[in-house]
Q: What sequence folds into this?
């Protein structure tokens, strides 16, 4: 094993200082709206990569390029990038109109006193289908504002319910950036991670729903919200959701979703056939920054590992967390700290992935549980920080509609992220992880064996 070298972790420190420092300056010092998201994160990562390249004078620059090439060319990184692109094409193809249809359908058939509970459930379903919490919040928050204005429900409660539901799907969806990053980074199948995560997320969601219902039934209501809806465009989302749950290969699932979505939007006249390819390209282009972050982080981490940074970090973690359960908590706190610093749960997972991979081996934690911990804890922190995109987009949507609400008014009603944290801790400390860590070569053999068995079953 390489000797530990704390100085090799400097690129991570440079990134965090620059990104967090500029974010605080832009957001609170200069008053720039969504200041954290006005920082070109790719540029900051390039600076961190430059710092990594300037370290370790014993390696020539050509040798460092070889090290970076091995990191970028890893199978998990290549697969992650391809899934990002396919998911982007899918979103560009099907659009997002069906999300509002689901909400208005449920609001039209369920009694008004359950409107806030409907907002939460709809947000859970929409984010699970779409794979984006920000997109869900963008679409459903205006409906939440209408519900609050028409019925008399508290606006912070309505908005927080949408945000909680949005984080439920962000944590579980098969086409969510966080799921893709966590599963590919840890080398586990999405269906296995989904099953692991669902056991944690469902109790938190059910408790949240009960609390929302208790608060709702104690509120005097005065009206309802109704609008037109069309559910035909929901079919591609259902194909992706069901296909992912039953374990169909993610590329096949996304291709089926893209094909069905293309047929539906063209047949309905929602998109002209000549514009469809352009929409696909726009969707794929929307994944550019996420893809570049994956590439740059893999290059930086390859150099940090080569220079002994991960060995030093793991040694420090082992001194702090000595047990298997403590190691799992350490993974959660690691990705949580990254999320607090970057205000981006996908970036936090990509950064934490290589360290968590080695922690999983050290503490004998299964790949699926490691991926689940990374995704869950990142969503917990991302769902409550007042400067996260989710919170800022929700507040902005309210403001555009003429209603004022602050992050600190919304935060007390963010029941789901808080209960998700409690549920996660229960599963770490009280629910045993039956499967231990499987080395890369053994995991590859297991995957090949499962694939051959499934193929044989299909032939029969």
A:
């Amino acid at each position: 094993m390489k000797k530990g070298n704390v100085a090799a972790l400097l690129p991570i420190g440079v990134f965090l200082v620059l990104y967090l420092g500029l974010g605080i300056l832009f957001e609170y010092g200069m008053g720039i709206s969504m200041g954290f998201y006005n920082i070109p994160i790719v540029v900051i990562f390039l600076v961190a990569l430059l710092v990594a390249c300037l370290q370790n004078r014993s390696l020539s620059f050509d040798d460092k390029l070889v090290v970076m090439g091995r990191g970028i060319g890893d199978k998990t990184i290549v697969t992650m990038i391809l899934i990002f692109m396919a998911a982007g094409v899918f979103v560009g193809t099907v659009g997002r109109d069906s999300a509002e249809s689901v909400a208005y359908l449920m609001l039209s058939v369920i009694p008004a006193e359950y409107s806030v509970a409907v907002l939460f459930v709809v947000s859970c379903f929409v984010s699970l289908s779409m794979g984006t919490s920000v997109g869900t919040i963008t679409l459903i928050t205006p409906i939440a504002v209408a519900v609050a204005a028409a019925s008399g429900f508290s606006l912070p409660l309505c908005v927080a319910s949408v945000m909680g539901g949005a984080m439920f799907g962000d944590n579980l969806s098969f086409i969510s950036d966080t799921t893709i990053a966590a599963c590919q980074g840890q080398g586990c199948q999405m269906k296995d991670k989904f099953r692991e995560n669902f056991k944690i997320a469902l109790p938190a969601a059910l408790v949240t729903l009960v609390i929302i219902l208790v608060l709702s039934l104690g509120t005097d209501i005065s009206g309802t919200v109704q609008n037109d809806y069309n559910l035909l465009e929901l079919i591609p989302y259902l194909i992706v959701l069901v296909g992912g749950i039953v374990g169909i290969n993610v590329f096949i699932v996304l291709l089926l979703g893209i094909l069905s979505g293309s047929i539906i939007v063209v047949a309905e006249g929602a998109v002209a056939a000549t514009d469809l390819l352009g929409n696909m390209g726009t969707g794929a282009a929307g994944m550019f920054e996420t893809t570049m972050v994956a590439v740059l982080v893999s290059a930086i981490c390859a150099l940090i590992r080569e220079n002994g940074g991960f060995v030093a970090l793991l040694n420090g973690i082992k001194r702090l967390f000595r047990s298997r359960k403590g190691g799992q908590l350490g993974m959660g706190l690691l990705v949580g700290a990254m999320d607090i610093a970057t205000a981006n749960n996908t970036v936090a997972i990509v950064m934490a992935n290589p360290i968590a991979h080695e922690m999983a081996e050290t503490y004998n934690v299964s790949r699926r549980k490691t991926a689940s911990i990374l995704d869950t804890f990142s969503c917990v922190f991302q769902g409550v920080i007042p400067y996260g995109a989710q919170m800022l987009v929700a507040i902005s949507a309210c403001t555009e509609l003429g209603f004022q609400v602050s992050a600190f008014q919304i935060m007390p009603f963010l029941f789901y992220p808080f209960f998700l944290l409690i549920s996660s801790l229960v599963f770490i400390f009280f629910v045993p992880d039956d499967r231990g860590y499987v080395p890369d070569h053994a995991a590859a053999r297991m995957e090949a064996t499962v694939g051959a068995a499934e193929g044989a079953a299909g032939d029969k």
User: Anything to note?
Assistant: The CA atoms of residues 438 and 446 lie 9 Å apart. The mean pLDDT is 82. The chain is about 75% helix and 0% strand.
